[in-house]
Design a protein that fits this description.
The structure holds two protein chains of two kinds. Helix content of chain A is 42%, strand content 19%. Chain A is an alpha/beta fold. In chain A, the strands form two sheets. A seven-stranded mixed beta sheet of chain A has the order 6-2-1-7-8-10-9. Chain A has a three-stranded antiparallel beta sheet with strand order 3-5-4. In chain A, helix 1 packs parallel to helix 3. Chain A is globular, with a radius of gyration of 19 Å. By secondary structure, chain B is of the alpha/beta class. Chain B has a single domain, classed as Methylesterase CheB, C-terminal domain (Rossmann fold), CATH 3.40.50. Chain B has six helices and nine strands. Chain B has a seven-stranded parallel beta sheet with strand order 3-4-2-1-7-8-9. The two termini of chain B are 22 Å apart. Classes of the chains: A alpha/beta, B alpha/beta. Chains A and B meet through helix 2 and helix 8 of A and strand 5 and strand 6 of B.
Chain lengths: 273, 197
């Protein structure tokens, strides 16, 4: 495997910022480096070749984004998290709002928003909730909309759903076609998919719950701090924010405007405007 | 064991292990000199979907409690860290951890190669890398990177390993400074500790 130095990584991030209006300058260096090296290998390029392609081939940026962003996810990831959602968080929101909105920020291939839709359906409140699922990468959004996953991923997804103690078998929600699990599109009827950039984009709505799990781990602390400000703005007072189980916001400027509701599953509540 | 030219310039110890490494790891942690001055960064293959139990089991007999760091957590002298389940764990130039959920590497997440290679990059020749028993080849490339950056490389003696594949894979592709039994690794930590007193 070839190596790439930080100066080159910075050149790549600068070029993308100037030319394509995406900002990777505050991404965590270790994973950004691995992702760029991966693209260089996959596309059989050199660093200079990559810079040239990013400059001269306008559509290459989409391919680049698709490979750069990490799209490894699963349905009902951390079943304990989903049990808390069902038993505590959603009921607490319902006390204040009979109809509410959830934002899945960095939704990737859609497993999380689909899990949410299934959970809400099983809770019988699916028609009262508007879900927004956003990602930087338009290719992955198309995959999320298709709600079609390889059958070989379903073993893990099903295991998670069983550990979550879902009320019916996950098998009731999809049909098997050519080695793929094709989920019932009705589940996504209340989901709005849209391209959105957490780094450069503005907050586009007000939410009762924002899920952004294992997304900000790819950012450095400067950027985590900025993004938390956006989530603060995007939440109603007493709204909830869920991040990944090994993420932490304690060092962010706005940390004191939230309280920890569940430290194990990293669920926070906005308590101050 | 050859007397090594130890000194007090090291900044971190990173340890990788897989099948058959748990007992050895517990022994090392249970006999660690009190106040051992360097961070110990462990990446051990583990069940991906079991978040609990492993760190507690390691902590039981460890001199220093073992923690699974959060993303971006600062690395402290004397801290003993374990890569959390289902995350890759990197070290960044600011001397902090960075976690990721990227694709598995060598069929593993956490992958030993990722932690070892990022440690090699950050700590250069101020790093000690140790690879214990294991049934796959994860860690070999990481040990190579540690060697290339001037760090000290140690593998558990394959003759003692429950499964020798992992140390042997490292021995096959890079220079390993020391091949030690677990008891000798315990002594090595004591000798190293004395350099800082």
């Amino acid at each position: 495997m070839q190596d790439i130095d930080i100066a080159d990584l910075k050149r790549i991030a600068e070029l993308i910022h100037q030319k394509h209006n995406y900002d990777f300058r505050n991404y965590a260096m270790s994973s950004f480096k691995r992702r760029v090296l991966r693209i260089i290998e996959l596309k059989n390029l050199t660093v200079d070749g990559l810079l040239k392609k990013l400059t001269e081939a306008p559509s290459f940026i989409n391919e680049f984004l698709d490979e750069l962003t990490v799209n490894v996810t699963e349905m009902f990831r951390d079943p304990g998290f989903w049990r808390i959602m069902r038993q505590e968080i959603i009921p607490a929101i319902l006390l204040n709002h009979k109809q509410f909105k959830i934002w899945h920020a960095g939704c990737s291939s859609g497993e999380e928003v689909l899990s949410m839709a299934i959970m809400l359906k099983e809770m019988g409140i699916w028609q009262d909730v508007q879900l927004f699922a956003t990602d930087l990468d338009t290719n992955i959004l198309e995959r999320a909309k298709a709600a079609t996953y390889s059958i070989k991923n379903m073993e893990l997804n099903e295991k998670n759903h069983i550990r979550f103690q879902g009320t019916s078998s996950i098998k009731n929600y999809y049909k098997e076609e050519n080695g793929m699990a094709v989920f019932n599109k009705d589940l996504l009827a209340n989901v709005t998919f849209r391209k959105h950039d957490l780094v450069l984009g503005d907050v586009f709505n007000k939410f009762d719950l924002i899920l952004c799990r294992n997304v900000m781990i790819y950012f450095n602390q400067t950027l985590q701090n900025e993004v938390l400000k956006k989530f603060h703005e995007g939440l109603f007072k007493y709204g909830y924010l869920a991040i990944g189980s090994k993420e932490s916001l304690i060092w962010c400027d706005y940390a004191n405007r939230f309280i920890v509701v569940n430290n194990e599953e990293k669920i926070y509540k906005k308590i101050k405007d | 064991m050859d007397k090594m030219n130890l000194n007090n310039s090291y900044k971190a110890v990173v340890i990788g292990g897989s099948a058959g490494s748990f007992q050895g790891m517990v022994k090392i942690l249970s006999q660690l000199p009190k106040g051992f001055p360097l961070p110990i960064i462990m990446v051990l293959h583990r069940l991906k979907h079991v978040r609990h139990g492993f760190v507690e089991a390691l902590s039981l007999k460890s001199i220093v409690p073992v923690t699974e760091p959060n993303d971006k957590e600062q690395i402290k002298k004397g801290g003993v860290y374990l890569a959390p389940a289902n995350y890759h764990m990197s070290v960044e130039l600011g001397n902090n951890f960075a976690l990721s959920t990227e694709e598995m590497v060598n069929n593993s997440r956490p992958a030993i190669d990722i932690t070892l290679s990022t440690c090699a990059y950050v700590y250069k020749d101020k790093l000690i890398g140790i690879l214990l028993s294991g049934a796959n080849r994860d860690g070999a490339v990481g040990m190579k990177h540690i060697n290339e950056r001037g760090g000290l490389t140690i593998v558990q003696d394959p003759a003692e390993c429950m499964i020798e594949t992992m140390p042997k894979a490292a021995l096959a592709i890079t220079k390993i400074d020391q091949v030690l039994k677990v008891d000798q690794i315990v002594e090595f930590f004591k000798d190293l500790d004395k350099q800082y007193r």
